[in-house]
């Protein structure tokens, strides 16, 4: 099933998500649905709050279907190491049609559980490092626009308010 993506303005995006404690068939279905919803929306990462589910779960595929091994399920993820710096243009499916340069760590190691509850560690560089940090931010109720200047953020918010008025958001 394809879920609609929740947009900026919905409070679910700005509250910390709850840990996942049950690893059952329902979770497996949710993970499949999240990959499907992410691909449908042309994204390379999707966090559960973005489909209105306030749980600590995200999916990532920075290859966008090119490499099946690149499909990552992050349950209850934590950042355990960060190093270096990279500045790149970043966007979010919940803030569509906006992009801003965001400086983040270049290399990031996370610890997370897979869909069966097994803990694993994974190190990502460049886009994958960025995706780890972006998606884990979502689980903490944080959007990428919290990392840009207040001036740029207010400009985006103003434009979004206009779109909301027009019924285009
Ligand atoms: Ni996002």
Question: Outline of this structure?
Answer:
The protein has helices spanning 25-40, 127-139, 150-166; strands at residues 45-47, 57-60, 72-83, 86-90, 100-104, 107-113, 119-125. The protein is of the alpha+beta class and 169 residues long. A hairpin with a 5-residue loop joins strand 6 and strand 7 (119-125).
Structural domain count? 1
β-strand number: 7
Q: CATH H-level name... which superfamily?
A: Peptide deformylase
Are there runs of 5+ residues with pLDDT below 50, and where?
Answer: none
Largest sheet: 5 strands, antiparallel
- Helices, by number, come to 3
Report how far the terminal alpha carbons are from each other: 22 Å
Q: For the CA atoms, what is the radius of gyration?
A: 16 Å
Features:
alpha+beta, binds nickel (II) ion, single chain, Peptide Deformylase, 169 residues
């Amino acid at each position: 099933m394809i879920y609609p993506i929740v947009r900026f303005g919905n409070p679910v995006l700005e509250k910390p998500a709850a840990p996942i404690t049950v690893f059952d068939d329902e979770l497996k279905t949710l993970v499949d649905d999240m990959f499907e919803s992410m691909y449908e929306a042309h994204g390379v990462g999707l966090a559960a709050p973005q489909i209105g589910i306030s749980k600590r779960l995200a999916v990532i595929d920075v290859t966008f279907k090119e490499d099946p091994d690149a499909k990552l399920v992050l349950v209850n993820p934590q950042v355990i190491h960060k190093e270096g710096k990279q500045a790149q243009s970043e966007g979010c499916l919940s803030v569509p049609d906006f992009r801003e340069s965001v400086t983040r760590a270049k290399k990031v190691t996370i610890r997370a559980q897979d869909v069966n509850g097994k803990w694993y560690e994974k190190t990502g560089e460049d886009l994958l490092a960025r995706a780890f940090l972006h998606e884990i931010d979502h689980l903490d109720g944080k959007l990428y626009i919290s990392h840009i200047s207040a001036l740029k953020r207010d400009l985006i918010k103003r434009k979004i308010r206009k779109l909301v008025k027009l019924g285009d958001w």
